[in-house]
Design brief:
The chain is α/β, with parallel strands linked by helices and 218 residues long. It has two domains: 3-129, Rossmann fold; 136-198, Thiamin pyrophosphokinase, thiamin-binding domain (Jelly Rolls), CATH 2.60.120. The chain is 16% helix and 33% strand. The chain has helices at residues 33-39, 75-85, 101-116, and strands at 3-7, 26-30, 46-49, 64-66, 90-94, 120-124, 128-133, 136-141, 147-152, 156-163, 169-175, 190-195, 200-205. The strands form two sheets. It has a nine-stranded mixed sheet, sandwiched between helices. β2, α1 and β3 (46-49) form a beta-alpha-beta unit.
Length: 218
Amino acid sequence: MKRCIIITAYLEKPIRQSLRLHEDDFIICADGGYDLAKKEGIIPHIVIGDFDSGKEPEGVPENVIHVPVEKDDTDTLLCLKYGIQRGFQVCGIVGGIGGRLDHTIANLQALSYGCDLGKYVVLLNGDNIVTLLNPGKMQFSKREGYKLSLFSYTEYCKNVTIKGVKYPLTNALLDHSFPIGISNEILADKAELSFDKGKLLVMLSKDKEENHLFNQFL
């Protein structure tokens, strides 16, 4: 399945240390993310932003969408909306974690926006991969050195069951004010997760000294 890859203006590591790009990826740069892409020789299909964090790129005008500084949507959310309008079901947002806390939270809400539309959207920076899931069943492959954490993004997530991990849960109730799902470990080749109500925030995180390329997002 073709992916939409959004490169944000904040990324501590090189883009190619955060994920392995595919030839058929549709690449969007959010504002100053164009500067990061240019340093690595990555040519985006479109650049969107108010350019308060980077210079407006030179080139063909139709490849740049200039938006006002004073607006309701963040540059990253505008990029996500553009990708969804183009028909992409899978979107990866590269960076946007670990800088200003308000920007990180805004990017988590961008995940929520995509989740509400039934899209699979992930936020990744080489050390973390974050997504929001609607009820259902899913699997996560084991990755050495990574911790798996589950948080209820809504008030409750009900009947949360996870197998193949150090701390399994069976029909558990997760709420948004108690982090019981943090820092689990995947022991089997794949962890199996299911829940039937709410919206679940899922994170794979590791310490910064290690590195891994996210080819398949989860």
